[in-house]
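User: I'm writing a short report section on ligand binding and want a predicted complex to refer to. Could you take this sequence and zinc ion and write out the structure as tokens? A short remark afterwards would be nice.
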Amino acid sequence: MVFKIVLLFLVFMGVLAWFGKMHWIGGKRFSQTKCRSCGRYRIGKGPCSCGGKS
Ligand SMILES: [Zn+2]
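Assistant: Sure. The structure tokens for the complex follow:
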């Protein structure tokens, strides 16, 4: 019984960590790829098509 609870807790923590990691990576990527002048998402590392400063 106790082993079952510990196992469930470990799985829960693992899922939480996985989701946190995914959210963190996604947020960082989006903040880096978003244009600062027009707010649109840029594709690749080049400057935005609007001509504004990246
Ligand atoms: Zn732009």
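A remark for your report: The longest helix spans residues 2-33. The chain is about 60% helix and 0% strand.
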